[in-house]
Write a structure and sequence with these properties.
It contains 67 helices and 38 strands. It is α/β, with parallel strands linked by helices. α11 crosses α19.
Length: about 1500
């Protein structure tokens, strides 16, 4: 049974193990083969296999029998939500039809291609009959003969009959339909196995618990009564319903208690459920509760479940609810003792309050620990206090004590205690036994069974005599364990300890309730760093006697360090305490835990989701936790480890500790730069960072700190030269000859110029396969109860499936003529600098749209594996925002051993330099790429000012306003001519621009126009821009400091005051601070924090020493001020359960109102039926969810919070309050938002469903209107509104097509966006389901698009993502409408501005181009930033093409001024040409492309000059 279940989803997890959909019999055969292959491993670890099989049995087993087995079986068969197992053949047939249609499309699109004259990569003739062309044949050609596939694609694109566009459109829909059918078939196959399990279970009646029969309510004898009376309730029998939440692992234990209770005291029944039963067996739960006398539950937090339970348990006399949501705990009732609303006890008696005050250290953060101490001794103390209420409280505490101590005997006694103390029964229940106590905290070890050590010190005294790693210098790691798991003897505890020891780590396993984590770390653990600090007098900390020194702390519980699970919903409130504790120890703090609320299969297939992601990632990151590794998950109701994940954890711990202990002169460091996209001067660039200059500072600091940098000297250190040499090493003409030729041709020059050498290797296919092959002996013992068993060469098979036989592959991507993958870079002693390889997607440009199991290119894998295994780096530094290793295919969140990010980074500590204003992408680097982020500042802010003819225009306007009427008339024509000359007609339209007509326009009308023009120029003049690029570790000079402060305070403080603060003139500051002391104080704080930019370098050195890096929120300096300073910190995001925040709700609602009003004004007072809103991670994090608030306001909804402030629902606002229709919203969800805020998506999905079901007129509820229309058309899930990329995938690919000039017209790009964003997300199984029909239906009704811009640094014109998503989405909506005249509006919200006032897209584009790209101040600042600045200019020229392609932004003035600024200004052109010739070439190329595509109409002379310049640069790059 276990093996067959293991292989059920093998077609999903490992495409190479099972080819195509399988029948159950095929799966059984495969499992037998696999069993034979791994027979030895099974024999060695039979115990593990038995555990695994028990886990699968529990997964299939129902928890409780409230009806007869026969009834339950029939109910299961009638379940309308199940996939019909009889549909399998029909689905297979439909799948075959779809595949035939796809193959026919491939045949038609390549019809007429001259195969007879084609040759393959090896020069062999190609023997293909075009009539036999299919998808699989073309994919094979793409892998084995990429040049041939490229020729075929060019042939198809060049046909003038429109077949290429029709092919893309048709195949997109067909492939998504195929994806959906394949998924449906997988569900059918799983359903068949589940049916087999159910039949076996019901026929055998294996469980004694299942034989228990729960009476119907009408069979209960006697009345329930009122537990608040002084007397015990008289009952003939008692039913106790027990429901578990996070502790479902205890369900077996509770069922055993139920069976024993039925034998020892038949008058009582214990009925056991877990919280998942509320979704699958709610009727049974309801039936059980209807006749219950006692309700007991623990660790339940889901708001919908809580609401339902509160309604259904309100009449149950006794209710014991522990460690759950405050709303559920408020239902606690034990006689006269009740919880007050909100979870607070309704005032214990004064005597009890005095007792409570005796416990705890007095510190705020220790209150919960003191509370636990009271719970332990409270019942003994309270029995001496008088009063019924005190007695009831004592009963509650006693029950809690039994539950908290856990174990079968204690739970049995707990039930007996409830029966004796709360009820008067015909016969006396068994006497409860004395509490079996386990220490609140302590240590344990498998080789000391049954023994608990009272402290880490006592444990280490034992370990040093008896431990497996005694008398060794192995690193010590404190491992914080959940006490409940220890008490219930969860097998994974011992497995974890033994695995860590096997990997060479001395574990100090410390069990805690959860709330004591910080006290254990603070009071019982220390480190060499802390001891030395105290010895040197640098710390006032007084260490307790017997503290134990450790090298790392591993928390297997998750949650915040302070408060633990009890502090879950208020994460961050004690963050300063945790930072203080962890800083004092200054050692790595890691989270590595099994998943307690998510099963193994869903993790492996869909990644970690929901609350589990918050527990394991979001909350611990606030404390500065790094390298979170999920160690296992639930299988059924039991917790299982994946030993392979423990191996990964151990490797990362050891390497971090090694960094701490190894001398700098012996450490090897890999520094990784970026070079994407290729051919446009991107090598050595990163967002907002001057990489060459920053590299100089890093290398110099390493040398100063004792690292071996070979012959490098301060004089020879030149970042631009390093980048230039790396560019040479990455060129195809160099790589095709291999590393030996590179060394021979460049080594002398490299050494003479830099004191370095060329380093690397040619990795042949045999060596690459060795890098990527798991140990041949690995089997179930290493992989645990994964849903499928990976073969040792699974990674090689995946790579060859994507790229062809590795031994024959010839790609041209850093591959020699003999097929070896080339790894090349520069080596300075023990420091290697290389450029991250391209991911490489060749051949079919549509491949990436559908093949979710792609792998990185072979040379990509060779690069990282060479750094790890041959260069043997102790740590790597990824230099800037951002690379690609964290975006590789694999689990969206929670790396498995088959996630390519995990495979590439392996166990190497990863120090990741990241811009502080990008928390959304940085958390991907942290979570998927194991990045310890080191934040860096943004460049200074500049004011746009006015330039060239804009200065003249402003002067004319001032003159007009200041002169008499007669003179004014003479200025009209010059003003109008100048407006036209600079292209302001659309920014500031006027009734006429004809010179003759202007002269006779009414004076008032023209004066009003002059005022509008002047206001516009003022806005333009004061717009901020990012000035140049930041140099790592460089504090701002006085001028830059003034610019930072001026931008932040934006007129709130006078410039003279700011200058005094900058110059630190205390007397002037004090004299000027009387009117605004708080602002002056804030300005001084920002100044001091900005001076700490030096931390950016020192933190890199600290990380390379294995030290703790202080955490800090990522965000926007203009919005958050001191909240994101100083830099040099480990970035975290925000608590996803508090989105949108209060201020975001206010601003979002205001923005929504303004958007609708602007639309009404522009569209004859007609509301938009559908508005597309972009939900992006970056702006959502930085604004605390303004885009979500806009969505809610458009729909007409508001957040509902539970007692701790968590947002748990979005409720509809009554139409009577809105006075307008509910607007339908199409949510364009970015991959980061999808992965980081799934809880928000779940709430939105629920909101859309409820809005569609609301009993409201269709003309007042467009969501309902559209859902009804789609339902009538037969579309599945007509309330789907949350669309994104396929699960685990990112990006629209529109920017890739624009960058490669691989498009004909804008509608193609719109179709590309649709194909990449047709995947629906929401509750339940709605996790990336292809629903193109629903998306198209929504696009047809979309009248407006809304996009937020989150910062000055990343505007519409600065990065490719805006046109690739917002622009392409608008084009897709206009295309879907089918009417060329149907234009879709686009509202842009600049969230960094004071007011969330929407602007039209084209207006913002013009403002941005004038204030940035075409502004000489911005251009000079960028050009002066070296090769990186030139690349930034180049990228913005590509983005101009993107906006022209997607939204038809085609205005000659912009291209004319760009040509004058960058091509025809000789000084500027020379500077760009010298610093980055590839970037300058791209600038020229884009201008010529704009002309060729009709975006610009330059005169012939201008175009000729550009073509000549481009030809010269092309010759230069070719070396002619």
């Amino acid at each position: 049974m276990a093996l067959r279940c293991r292989l059920v989803v093998s077609n999903v997890g490992d495409q190479n193990l099972v080819s195509g959909p399988q029948t159950s019999s095929q799966r059984r055969n495969t499992s037998k083969d696999m069993h034979r292959m791994n027979k030895a491993a099974y024999k060695d670890q039979n115990i593990n296999l038995q555990r695994e099989m028990r886990g699968v049995c529990h997964a299939a087993k129902e928890s409780v029998a409230t009806t007869s087995n026969a009834e339950r079986f029939l109910e299961d068969l009638d379940d309308e939500n199940r996939v019909s197992v009889d549909d399998g053949d029909a689905v297979r047939q439909e799948l075959q039809v779809v595949q035939s249609e796809i193959d026919e499309q491939y045949r038609q699109v390549f019809e007429g291609f001259p195969f007879e004259s084609a040759v393959d990569t090896d020069g062999e003739d190609v023997h293909i009959d075009e009539r036999d062309m299919t998808e699989s044949i073309f994919q094979s050609i793409s892998r084995e003969s990429p040049n041939l596939s490229k020729s075929m694609l060019q042939f198809a694109e060049q046909q003038g009959d429109g077949r290429w566009k029709e092919f893309q459109k048709t195949v997109t829909v067909l492939k998504m339909k195929r994806s959906r059918l394949e998924r449906q078939l997988e569900q059918i196959d799983v359903a068949k196995v589940v049916d087999e399990q159910k039949v076996a279970r019901f026929s055998k009646d294996r469980s004694n618990y299942e034989k228990l029969d729960v009476q119907r309510p009408e069979q209960q004898q006697g009345e329930r009564g009122d537990s608040s009376s002084a007397e015990k309730l008289k009952k003939s029998s008692v039913r106790i319903v027990l429901m578990t939440g996070f502790e479902s692992f205890n369900s077996d234990l509770y069922r055993k208690v139920a069976v024993n209770l039925s034998k020892s005291f038949p008058s009582a029944q214990l009925v056991v459920f877990n919280d998942r039963d509320l979704e699958t067996r709610r009727d049974e739960v309801s039936l059980a509760l209807a006749g219950a006398d006692v309700f007991f539950s623990s660790l339940i937090f889901d708001f919908d479940q809580v609401e339902w339970l509160n309604e259904n348990i309100k009449d149950i006399p006794y209710r014991f609810i522990f460690e759950s949501s405050l709303e559920l705990m408020s239902s606690t009732k034990v006689g006269g003792f009740q919880m007050a609303p909100g979870g607070q006890k309704s005032g214990p008696p004064p005597a009890v309050k005095k007792v409570l005050n005796l416990f705890g250290s007095g510190k705020e953060e220790d209150k919960l620990v003191g509370y636990l101490s009271f719970l332990k001794i409270g019942p003994k103390l309270l029995k001496y206090l008088p009063g019924k209420k005190v007695q009831d409280l004592r009963n509650w505490l006693t029950v809690y004590s039994y539950w908290n101590q856990g174990g079968e005997e204690n739970v049995t006694s707990m039930i007996n205690y409830i029966l004796r103390e709360c009820f008067e029964l015909p016969s006396a229940p068994p006497e409860p036994r004395a509490l079996l106590e386990t220490p609140a905290t302590g240590c344990l070890h498998p080789e000391a069974p049954g023994r608990y050590f009272e402290s880490p010190d006592a444990y280490m005294q034992w370990y040093e005599k008896h431990g497996p790693l005694k008398n060794t210098s192995s690193p010590r790691a404190a491992v914080l364990l959940y006490r409940k798991h220890v008490i219930t003897k969860q097998p994974y505890i011992n497995d974890l300890i033994e695995c860590l020891e096997k990997e060479g780590i001395i574990p100090i396993p410390i069990f805690i309730n959860g709330v004591e984590a910080h006290t254990i770390v603070r009071d019982q653990l220390t480190s060499d760093y802390e001891v030395n600090n105290i010895r040197m007098g640098n710390s006032s900390t007084m260490l307790s006697p017997g503290v134990v020194s450790v090298d790392a702390v591993i928390n297997t519980i998750g949650f915040p360090l302070v408060g633990g699970p009890s502090g879950t919903m208020e994460g961050g409130r004690q963050i300063d305490i945790s930072k203080s504790i962890l800083s004092a120890k200054n050692i790595p703090y890691m989270i590595a835990a099994p998943l307690l609320i998510q099963d193994m299969e869903s993790w492996v297939e869909k990644g970690i989701t929901g609350l589990q992601s918050v527990v394991l990632y979001s909350l611990p990151e606030l404390d500065g936790a790094i390298d979170s590794v999920p160690l296992g998950a639930l299988v059924g109701e039991n917790i299982y480890l994946i030993p392979e994940r423990v191996t990964r954890l151990a490797g990362r711990v050891k390497n971090w500790v090694s960094l701490r202990k190894k001398p700098p002169s012996e450490k090897k460091v890999g520094i990784i730069l970026y070079g994407f996209p290729p051919g446009v001067g991107a090598t050595g660039t990163a967002a907002l960072l001057n990489v060459p200059k920053s590299l100089e500072k890093i290398l110099y600091s390493l040398k100063e700190s004792g690292y071996d940098l070979g012959d490098m000297s301060e004089e020879s250190l030149d970042g631009e030269k390093i980048v230039a040499y790396l560019q040479q090493l990455s060129k195809e003409e160099a790589t095709c000859r291999g590393i030996h030729h590179m060394t021979e041709s460049l080594n002398t020059a490299v050494h003479n110029d830099l004191g370095a050498k060329v380093a690397g290797a040619d990795i042949d296919s045999k060596r690459l396969k060795e890098f990527l092959t798991f140990d041949e002996s690995w089997g179930p013992n290493e992989w645990g109860p994964m849903p499928f068993l990976p073969s040792p060469d699974i990674l090689v098979k995946k790579m060859e499936n994507a790229w062809g036989d590795l031994g024959k592959y010839r790609s041209g991507l850093s591959t020699t003529t003999s097929g070896n993958s080339v790894v090349a870079g520069l080596q300075f002693g023990n420091v290697f600098i290389g450029v991250q390889p391209l991911l490489g997607v060749e051949g079919d440009p549509m491949r990436l749209l559908f093949e979710r199991d792609l792998t990185p290119h072979p040379q990509y894998a060779a690069f990282y594996k060479w750094i790890e295994q041959e260069f043997q780096a102790d740590g790597v530094i990824h230099c800037g925002t951002h690379g690609t290793s964290e975006w590789l295919p694999g689990s969206p969140l929670g790396n498995t051993g088959l996630s390519w990010s995990d495979i590439m980074l392996s166990s190497i500590p990863n120090i990741y330099i990241y811009t502080a204003n990008n928390p959304s992408e940085s958390i991907i680097a942290k979570r998927r790429g194991y990045g310890t982020t080191i934040s860096h500042n943004v460049p200074p802010y500049g004011r746009s000012g006015l330039y060239k003819q804009l200065i003249d225009l402003k002067a004319l306007l001032l003159e007009y306003r200041e002169t008499n009427d007669d003179a004014c008339s003479d200025l009209r024509v010059p003003i109008i001519e100048l407006v036209e000359s600079v292209g302001l007609e659309k920014d500031c339209p006027f009734v006429t621009f004809d010179a003759a007509s202007v002269a006779i326009v009414d004076e008032t009308v023209f004066s009003d126009y002059v005022s509008r023009l002047y206001t516009y120029l003022l806005e333009l003049e004061n717009r901020l821009y990012s000035e140049g690029l930041h140099i790592l570790g460089s504090p701002p000079n006085d001028e830059q400091m003034h610019k930072y402060l001026s931008a932040y305070f934006d007129g709130k403080l006078d410039d003279t005051i700011l200058q005094s603060i900058v110059e630190e003139e205390d007397e002037r500051i004090q004299a000027s601070s009387s009117s605004s002391p708080e602002l002056v104080s804030e300005a001084a704080s920002i100044r001091d924090l900005l001076k700490q930019n030096t931390n950016e370098i020192s933190s890199i050195l600290k990380a390379l020493d294995g030290e703790y890096i202080l955490p800090e929120a990522g965000g926007d300096l203009l919005r958050d001020g001191v909240g994101v300073l100083p830099t040099g910190r480990n970035i975290y995001a925000l608590d996803p359960y508090r989105m949108p925040g209060p201020s975001a709700q206010i601003r979002g609602a205001a923005a929504a109102d303004a958007i609708l009003q602007a639309h009404l004004d522009a569209n004859d007072n007609q509301y938009p039926e559908t508005v597309a809103v972009s939900l992006w991670g970056l702006d959502a994090i930085k604004t605390k969810g303004e885009s979500v608030a806009i969505t809610l306001a458009l729909i007409g909804a508001r957040p509902v919070k539970e007692g701790t402030g968590r947002i748990v629902r979005f409720e509809l606002i009554p139409l009577s309050e809105m006075n307008r229709p509910r607007i339908d919203v199409l949510c364009n969800v970015s991959g980061i938002f999808r992965d980081s805020f799934q809880n928000v998506l779940d709430l939105l999905d629920d909101l859309f469903k409820r809005a569609a079901e609301a009993d409201e007129p269709a003309d007042m509820n467009y969501i309902r209107k559209h859902a009804m229309t789609m339902s009538n058309e037969g579309l599945e899930n007509p309330t789907a509104r949350l669309f994104s990329n396929p699960s685990g995938d990112y990006g629209s690919m529109v920017n890739e097509r624009v960058g490669a000039s691989n498009w004909e017209d804008g509608s193609e790009l719109g179709s590309t966006w649709v194909s990449r964003n047709a995947y629906s997300y929401g509750r339940g199984s709605e996790k990336g389901v292809a629903r193109p029909e629903v998306l198209q239906s929504l696009l047809k009704t979309t009248d407006r698009v809304v996009q937020e811009i989150d910062s000055v640094e990343y505007g519409l014109t600065d990065i490719q993502e805006y046109y690739a998503n917002t622009g392409a989405l608008r084009r897709a909506a206009e295309t879907a409408k089918g009417d060329a005249s149907s234009k879709v509006g686009c509202s842009i919200i600049e969230t960094f501005s004071k007011e969330p006032t929407p602007k039209e897209l084209e207006d913002v584009l013009r403002l941005e181009y004038r204030s940035k790209l075409l502004n000489p101040k911005w251009a000079d600042a960028m050009a002066n930033s070296g090769s990186g600045g030139a690349f930034e200019i180049s990228q913005r020229m590509t983005a101009m093409i993107g906006w022209g392609a997607t939204v038809d932004f085609k205005e000659d003035w912009a291209w004319n001024q760009a040509a004058e600024t960058y091509a025809f200004d000789q000084a500027m052109a020379m500077k760009l040409k010298e610093s980055n010739p590839e970037a300058f070439t791209n600038i020229l190329k884009r201008m010529i492309e704009a002309s060729g595509r009709g975006m610009w109409n330059p005169d012939e002379d201008t175009l000729d000059r550009l073509k000549n310049l481009y030809s010269e640069m092309d010759d230069t790059l070719e070396g002619i």
